[in-house]
Structures are given as C-alpha cells and as structure tokens.
Amino acid sequence: MRHHTSLRCIDAVARAGSIRAAAEQLALTSTALNRRILAFEEELGVAIFERTTRGVRLSSAGEIVIHHIRNQLSDMERVRSQIADLSGFRRGQVAIACSQALLPYFLPRQITAYREQHPLVRFTVLLRDRDAAERALAEHSADLAIVFEPLRLSQIQPIVRVHQPVCAVVSAKHPLASCTSLRRADCLDYPLALPARGSGVRKLLDAAEEHSSIGLEPMIESDSFEFLRQYVDRAQAVTFQIPIGLDPFRDGPDALRAIPLDTSEVPPGMLFMGQLRDRTLPVAAARFAQQLVAAFADHFEVS
Fold first, then answer.
1. In this predicted model, which residue has the larger pLDDT, 181 or 8?
2. Rounded distance, CA 231 to CA 157, Å?
3. Which end of the chain is more exposed for a tag (fewer CB within 10 A), N or C?
C-alpha cells in the first residue's frame, strides 16, 4: 500500500504539472514530495519528469510510466471495491464524464436513487465534451463516459446505445406548443436559439442542412443548454434538445414543450455509455452502470 501512495503522488504531479501544486493537494511539503519522486526515478533508473521554469512535464519515459501507474491505481480501486462487497458494504467511488444533457435531470435522479441503497459510495461527475470524455476514460479520471454523438470510439467499449430524437423546445405559450411533430421549416417564422457548433445536437441539425435548401439562422447561439432552455421559456423562440436533457416529470400549463422533429429530415442521434476498452470496472461503477442501462431501457429505445 505504501508503494501505491508513491504512485498516487506521481499521478498527482503529472496531473497538476507542478510539484508545488500537487504537494498542496496531497498535504505534503514540496521538498518531501520532490524527494519521493527523485527516489522513484533513481530506483527506475530514468527521469520521469522534465523540470522547467513553469513546473514539470512528463518525459518520454514518464508517459509510459504514468500509463502503468494509472492502470495500477485503477486495479487497486477495483480490488478495494470487491473486498468491500464481500463485507456487505457497497463502498467505492464512481467517476462519470458526460455531456451536459445528462446533468440537469437524469444523472441527479439516478445518483440519488443509487446512494439511497449504497450511501458509502462517492461520485464524481465531470462535464466533458465528446472528445474530452474519451480522454477522461484513457486517463482513468472517469470510469464511465456518457456522450451524445461521440467523435470517435477508438478507446470506448460501448455498454449501451440510446436513441435520442432531436426535439424543438418551446414555451407552453408558443404557437407551436400544441404540435406533435415538426419539420425544420415550421420553425423558421420564430427566433432560433441554437446550440453552439461542436455539440451533438448542432451536428445533426447541420448535417440535415447539407441535404436541404432550408437553413437555420440563429438569433442566439450558446454552448449552455440550460441557458437555451431558460431563454425559450421566457421568449417566443425555438431551441433544440434531446429528450434526456429535458425534465420528464415537469408537467402542467407552464411546462416547456418538446416536439420531435420529423426523422426523415433529422435522423435521431445516439447517446453512448461506455467504459475504457479492456478495463474491468470497480464493483460500484459496474453496479451503477447496470442501473443506468435499466433506466435508459425504461424511458428510451436502446440497443
């Protein structure tokens, strides 16, 4: 276990890029932490950090070492979780990197439900875009990634795929609020508040535009779905979102209306939940993933 303490110190320095900053996080002195790194480097026979005027960075050998260290730490966390399982206490930590659509409603409810059964499990929820979520898995800073329309899947082992149609979102008093389905042309008479380029929803809207003479000209663009929801709730505007980013339990005369776009114009997108390829998840993370799969299946079409 003392060996793993040294590994955690090295990992902290690599993430912080500074011995001083890592020492503060670890409640150590910079001198003590530096001595520990130098001892490790002497034992290894090679420098794993390059010292610069601005801090430290991994050497070529250090890149190899840090990958091994993170695998070791991840395996130890899995062992701890399995041992705790044997004693009847569901302990551990679950780290999730996810698209922002999961943050307002879906994940808070799922984490609350899980912790009611297993209150000793800790959670870390990281807002990460499509590319950064995969990096978080590779760096072992996340156990699970849940992303809409990921850029690539080279390092992700999918656990479940969730079909998500793109919906126009309007206030309850909007003229389109009573519609059950819309085409993009139906939205052109109203101010458009679009997700920023680079988001999964915008990718699907832009792809549809490439095959049509109808273009969506935004009056407002934002990379915050929460801002867009709040804006259309107060204005006669239209934004676009996927169902998982909307509150399924909010109802009544003042609730936002989510109206699916015609799938012949804008095909549904795919929400992926996955883990790092060839990694065995800690027990707590694996059990939470099972809960999420069941929740997805209860509310959406999955594959």
1. 181
2. 37
3. N
d(CA 152, CA 159): 15
At 187, is the secondary structure helix, strand, or coil? helix
CA distances from 23 to 36, 37, 223, 271 (A): 11, 12, 35, 39
pLDDT digits (tens, 9 = 90+) for 45-89: 888 899 888 888 888 888 888 888 888 887 777 777 767 665 545
Q: What is the spatial distance between Cα 145 and Cα 2, in angstroms, rounded to a whole number?
A: 31
CA 49 to chain centre: 29
- Dist. CA 138–CA 12, nearest whole Å: 16
Between CA 200 and CA 147 the distance in angstroms is: 9
Query: Which residue in 189, 190, 127, 194 sits closest to 166, CA to CA?
Result: 194
Cβ 18 vs Cβ 37: under 8 Å? no
What three-state secondary structure class fits 222? strand
pTM: 0.70
E-assigned strand segments in 66-188 = 93-98, 122-127, 144-148, 156-164, 167-170
Cβ neighbours of residue 60 closer than 8 Å, sequence gap 6 or more: none
